[in-house]
Batch of 4 targets.
Target 1
Amino acid sequence: MRVLVTGTAGFIGFSLARALLARGDSVIGVDCVNDYYDVRLKEARNAVLLREGGSRYTFLRQDFADYPGLTAALKGHEFDRIVHLGAQAGVRYSIENPHAYVQANLVGHLNLLEVARHRGVETMVYASSSSVYGGNTKLPFSVEDRVDHPLSLYAATKKADELMSETYAHLYGLPLTGLRFFTVYGPWGRPDMMMWIFTRKLYAGEPLPVFNHGEMHRDFTYIDDIIAGVMASLDHPPANDGTVKAGGSTRPHRLYNIGNHRSEPLLKVIALLEAETGRKAELNLLPIQPGDVPQSFADIDAIAGDLGYAPTTSIDVGVPKFVAWYREYHGV
């Protein structure tokens, strides 16, 4: 299979491209390699793909929010399916830099829908987010729930991406799958996320900023489990048969939660990090941040029933794996 993957210099895009290459697929990676976080990490990921993929990995250093540039870069490249994972990430950063999210997440998503339509691809899988659940209080979060009250612009852009995708499934019969990811972590993860920040601060002997005074719960999902769900979605496109899909569409468009189906206390994760680093944490207890939610918890019945998705990695296993990678990468 020939797969176009956006965001291959990012955490999930890199991990997916690596898995696709490992099973023998060809990958065209698209990423502008911006400086939202350390570019050296992004370049290191890309170097791994170039080394492991050989002639089956093609990298295009291109901003997918630039439609003329994107179509020009893709000219002459053939692909059967698309996985659109590139985006401007981060809930808190969207409060400081709203225009970056509109450009990357709205314009960029529309551009990939247009590429998919004009190229006549077999299917496109795209990244949504658990952030779309916003202020919902019913737990666990289900894809059948209303998601009309986002708490951040980032969440609003992801909800808008789902709505745009529904129109393309309706107008053009384009098979689409939106994946609402829940707190992804693991080797090669993002430096702006809690797992990396807390690990770095523990080794540096710095206090950990713990929001909502520690009353935070997250559905932490290990990267290998995330990739298993993405690949299952890619390999099994939704049918254009008029049946109701996960998320409620009668078009070839479905929505899935990809989580671990466990809502873990943040303080438990901190205890695991303390054990793995051998450092005692000093906690700086703070109020909840604007845009944050106190708890996330994924109902994964839809993707489990349709695709057999079954996460296998608990935080007791995943956190030590992340810390082991972090130590190797940084030479700690």
Note: DSSP finds eleven helices and 13 strands in the chain.
Target 2
Amino acid sequence: MRAEYREEPCRSALNKVSGMSFKWSLNPYTGCAHRCTFCFVRAFEKRADRPFDDRYGASIRVKTNLVEVLRRELSRPRWAHEQVVIGTATDPYQPAEGRYRLTRRSIEALTEARNPLSIITRGPLIVRDVDVLVEAARRAPVAVTFSIPTLDPEIVRRTEPGTAPPRQRLRALTALVDAGIEATVGMAPILPGLSDRPELLADVVKAARDAGATAVWTNVLYLRPGTREHFLANLARDWPELMPRYERLYDGRAYLPKSTIEPVRREVADLRQRLEIADRRRVRILPLPPPADPEQLELTLPDRQPAEPTRAARAG
């Protein structure tokens, strides 16, 4: 499906987030051409009375003035330079970024402000921006998470129809780690009865280790209204034999109980320990010193006596 791009200005760039480990998010685009069947953003689209079904991703809003608005917000006296996560509600490296470069320019703005940033993506296009990410990491903490729930080609094809293959994401991760950027793998969402099989979990953790991932974490699918209808409709088409299990698991709830989630997390934790996933970056980015305060610099400069005039000056 070919996406239509709508160029529209935005009134704000930074979004206040609640109930997460971070407080601020940034999304250069609205809508996502990846069209993952399990995307949690479909739930927000339904609440906003926008298409959350097969039409989601057909129209992408491009926030044309995003970077200018972001710079204004970062320069406000009350801004506390808290972490900003790019890509919470749309992939910042979906195909539109190749043309509009809003994500790249946003990283540059955050770099100028010495602001910590994180990125969540399924897009290998991020390798284009290794240079600005390295520069950003010299000024503040930078981290990238590649979302790779499974390597199984059939599951990927049916549930992530617009994404690049997972192996391409892993190659992009290696490029970032080789440049000194912290890059992790997020195995999310794990789909019960599909990508939760032990051998499939092990495949991802092994591939993450081989690619140089600095960490691996996981989470299991949750289904809010909007996401629920779309995902289950696709499940009924592609894996109808799993429908009774999902109807039982998600009967009247969006989040699965710990008794269902914890075995998956334990399995990944055991794999992580057994395969010795760790931060093994050979390149470490050295932070630049903070800019000097001109007033403080003037106060701390040693008193200097006027220089002795040279012989030529005296002769003149």
Note: The domain at 4-315 is CATH 3.20.20.70 (TIM Barrel).
Target 3
Amino acid sequence: MVPPVPPSAPTPVPFVDLHLTDDLDDVRQAIERVVASGWFVLGPEVEAFEAEFAAASGAPYAVGVANGTDAISLLLRAADIGPGDEVLVPGLTAAFTALAVTMTGATPVFVDVDAERLTMDPARAAEAVTSRTRAIVPVHLYGRVADMTPLQSVAERHGLVLIEDCCQAHLARYEGQPVGTTGLGGAFSFYPTKNLGALGDGGAIVTASRTVADRIRRLRNGGQAVRNTHEEAGINSRLDELQAAILRARLPRLEEWTARRRALAAVYRTHLPAGVLGGARERAGDVHHLFPIRVPRRHVVQAHLAAQDIQTLVHYPVAMPDQPAFRSARGSCPVARRAAGDVLSLPLHPYLSDAVAMRVCSVVAGAVAVAGEPT
């Protein structure tokens, strides 16, 4: 008697796929070009990438730096923000947003987020302003654009600097305006998992101000405008030639990759159980760096998905006021705290197929049924 054939295991679904595919040859050529040049830091590749990224981002100037955290911090320093100053930061974000504030000597103040889109709530921002507040740093979290018009109104009403954390929002737009172009400038990250990722770390600022761009070029290089003359106490935050060349090779595909992310998000929004979407309103300019859902008993849902070989992650499990590093900062953020307890990010990257996304939707539906219907 022939034994029964055991059912095949489900095909694994990684959270993200960082393997180079259609851009492999271009990236290899970019690397070889830099190696052959013998120039590895702050050279022609960085200058070319800065011009190309500025054009893609709809900004007059871009300055490459070592990472997205430095990009935020350097923008704050360019606005002369430092010890004794307060900076408003959303209560739900990567901790690096707030860490960038502390790097300047300023104090982060946490502002609660909108219950649906989980970006900074403008009304709560207005309530958080004090005589020490100098800046607002909204985050375009998950690639969802923050509500910039009312936030800009708060900034203008109180004479505050507005700096955008665009580290998860390459090519995003708010009501047609590119992110990073509303206030003093925008900070971008090119960490490998980002919508435009390097093969290592990297970052950039964009700004409409030549004065700001020139100062950040000086600050990123130890405060030097002229070699060996340090006009101020800068830092070492230089985008290297290899990463700049790699980003130049990948940048022309960013529009296509963004369109694919939007298509996958549409699949998720159409086929996931309505309750897990958290009622999040979608804006036309969102770029879906991540696709978070809201689920009860998250550990049960995540374990159910893992049993089907579907990898998920949590962005972010600890609200900013609850991070030990920020014990002394003010801001209660109950909405952010609730979200930190039930958000779960599903796989989403340009090489994910519709069929796999549909499978994820089906497994999520089963997992939610096991965990209990969302309220």
Note: The chain has a mean pLDDT of 95.
Target 4
Amino acid sequence: MFVRVRRAARLVVALLAFGGLPAGALAQPAGIDPQALAILKKSTDYVAGLEAFSVDTTSTIEVVLTSGQKIQFDHAAVALVQRPDKLVARRQGDLVNQTFYYDGKHLTLYNPGEKYYATVAAPDTLEGALDFARERLDIIAPASDLFYRNAYELLTADIKSGFVVGKAVVGGARCDHLAFRNADVDWQIWIEEGARPLPRKYVITSTQVVGAPQFAALTTWNTAPKFVAGAFVFTPPKDGRKIDFLRLTSGTAPAQGRKQ
């Protein structure tokens, strides 16, 4: 394995030396490219216009040890969304196994392993419930940044720079690769070309954290799902154990930023 890693590193160096990588990927243009914003806006408008969809996400998050070594953890998630007020998100992986329910009135977090669940009254819109979960409970549903109808305004609120890196292929789909920079994170997004400008991949780099750990996710979308009756309603198991949410105290900031 280590031999392969060293060979891969030498290959990258060789590509850089002999121009095997696109020159545009090696230099960062100044300012914010209007074309990058236009592509992002088209994508967020498209997703905002979907009344119902499901999205499967596979993601990797890096943790930096005190020694400086990076460790990666993987998880997979599936989210079912029905606007304006329904969401179920199931996440399973190295660090978490949970299901997030929102039925328009209540928000429930369920841990199927230990069969613990907590339920609380929530705002009557999807965006309001997501804000409530993040700000009051420090809970972020998988890929939820993409679910807001005003996602474009949220994503571009404090960007310092942005540009089109070039074309790429993600999951068999040809995409536009965009890169943006905020005060505390760098983030990239790959958006499918054509009539369905769906986000297919995104990467977030925490530039203010030692070691600059990254969060990366690949997404697969179904824009014409058929949900079964009761898909968004949580029914506790007979042996389920109800607990209370531990809410953030007033003035306490969530542990994770919006783009994570």
Note: Helices lie at 2-17, 34-48, 126-137, 151-156.
